Amino acid sequence: MKILNPIVALALGVSLIFPIGTAAQSMSNEQTTPITVLEDGVPKKLKMRGADRFEIKWNYKAGQEYFSEVVDKATGTMYLLSADGVLHALNPSGQVKWHSDLGIDWADHLKLGKDGLLYAQNHNLYDFKDGEPALILAVDKAGKERWTMELPHMYPYGSTFDVSADGIMFMLTDRGVTAIDQEARLIWANDQAVTYKYDYYLSHDVVRLTWIESIQTLLV
């Protein structure tokens, strides 16, 4: 089942006035939300479980399908990357801070690196076999593009990407799990955890890379 929906950011408030027993029982209650999604091509309204304990504070629609979003925990700012390559920044009240057109089509993933930069990826999921490169764009929190990097051997589709506080990027390439600096120089590669295949699109068996800064360790 593939679900694609317009950019919709929801802020939910939780009421804690219910005793434990009542709250647990209310989780079976459902309420249709104003949000419409496409489920196998059929428009359907989202349903919220435990709806009597939540309320929608605000919502935001940009008229485009989107692939990825991140929230800056320090400021509460939400960043949304739409399919047309436009990056949207919203404050915690749902008001638009800025838009930035990154000039890429079918941007598929957004990451807030531990170095404070936003990283947008443009995938080569269907073109990897033909040697088409993937792109990584680094953007600051004001929406200004810092640099763009072409990586012909990267597998960028999905959430297999992270960035350390020093700006070291961890990703999947045809060499395996790989660390690359911001000059596109290879630091190390490890192929022990990765297998991949290419039918009509690229697939691999690693679904997430997470860099733990406090212990300088990459979880695969």
TrEMBL record:
The keyword Signal applies. It comes from the Bacteria. The keyword Signal applies. Coiled coil: none annotated. InterPro entries: Quinoprotein_ADH-like_sf, WD40/YVTN_repeat-like_dom_sf. Keywords: Signal. Residues 1-23 form the signal peptide. This is Bulb-type lectin domain-containing protein. It comes from Brevibacillus formosus.
